[in-house]
Amino acid sequence: MSEQMLIGGDWIEGTGPALESINPADGSFNAEFSTATDSEVDDAVAAAKDSYYRGEWRALKPHQRADYLFAFHHTLLERKEEIARLQMRENGKTITECRGQVDQAAGIIRYFAAVCETMEAEVTPPRGDYVSMVSYDPYGVVALVTPWNSPITLNAQKLAPALAAGNSVVLKPSEVTPGIGLEMGRICQDIGIPSGVVNVVSGRGAVVGDRLIKHPDVRMISFTGGTESGRAIARTAGERLVPVALELGGKSPNIVFADADLDKAAAGVASGIFGSQGQSCIAGSRLFVEDSVREPFIAKLRDFAAKWRIGHPEDENAQMGPMASFHHRDRIAGYVSSAIDEGGKILYGGDVPDGPEFAKGAYYQPTIVGGLDHGARACQEEIFGPVLCALPFSDENDVVAQANDTVYGLACGIWTSDFAKAWRVCQRIEAGSVWVNAYKQVSISTSFGGMKDSGIGREKGIDGVRLYTEPKAIYLAT
Ligand code: NAD
Q1: Which residues are near ligand 1 (CB < 6 Å)?
Q2: What is the largest CA-CA distance in the chain?
């Protein structure tokens, strides 16, 4: 029997074509997931709408919604090992990273539980006989669409604030990793969130996702995924006139000035691209290194790449598991071939790793490519793998111009001992997050999102809940 979906508090077997989940570490079969047909998507939206208007969730007092979210946080932690292993089998992330992500997701849910009670509405300046105020109302039914690279954290990052705001939701997890979204739905049911408030449907984006976002009763769309899918979703949202939040792709620069602590910078650049197999929206995939330190810096980076431990995701010491799927590994290899065709030189890696332990899995080496022009495909398109394009620069103006010469604007790292320079560059860089002498530090209290083709809107922080509400002006005549 295929894995079921959660609709209106019931677990039902979808009648769309089943999806097979394959473990990318060895090609073994994980599970078969049933998927939704149009009418089952409609049922999920109807269940969410019905629960919203019944008011069993929306009308709860903020502390009562907070209690449920604290229970969600605790239950997720109680089931940490099981959830971590499920993600590991679905997308090949190392067990160590998966456990860390369960902690992170629980922290996200705890944060939004606290926001329920600390979020404020506004009383605006009095106008004669009127008391004027702004309250923040939930939208109603919200569609949450998520990708495969970090489903534990990304599902939590959407579910928790959308629920904290009082919405009912339909979650559509990636077809590559449906299991985590379904398990989160199960936890919401186990802790007693009323039926129909959280619904989870499985299936392909172009079919199930498309039906969901086009449904007339969906009042807001929150999407994380690739830029082209985001553009298609934005077109639908534009046509339907519903608000949409888009967290999309990136091609983030990591800038190393000659005056940086080169050892720390090399460690930061290496983990910024090889961490999470490079399958991270904020991966620092373009390295800009100042001409005068280029050779010694690349030598340090090659050392890091050579010592990066590739291994089976169950190996507690592995730093890198397989890519999320064989198809995706082949796509990454295709980008490396295109880089060579465009004049690139492999400075490290550039192939699948040697060894019988890697033969059955979708592994790929940490890879550094030099010698490319910044206009090359590999420097402009998101590869979403452990492939670093190393590029030279001569001075501050040159590097700012090159770093911004991309359609993306998600993140940026700046490595220097000159804080005045760091501040100047930081102000000129077009990116939603900038780190100085650090990379990939994130905090749930700090807003996150992209500029340019990397997205619209910001998640996390207090605004993470505002995203799922709309302001209402109220005037009370005295
Ligand atoms: P994807 O765009 O292929 O799919 C993401 C989700 O959208 C999936 O659930 C998919 O089924 C669904 N989908 C796809 N097309 C759709 C459509 N037309 N209508 C409705 N739903 C649709 O992305 P992916 O390959 O799963 O994930 C990798 C991408 O996600 C990368 O580009 C990465 O940078 C991005 N990402 C961004 C962030 C961020 O916060 N900015 C975080 C993680 C991943």
Answers
A1: 145-149, 154, 172, 174-175, 204-206, 209-210, 213, 224-226, 229, 232-233, 247-250, 281, 382, 384, 410, 450, 455
A2: 80
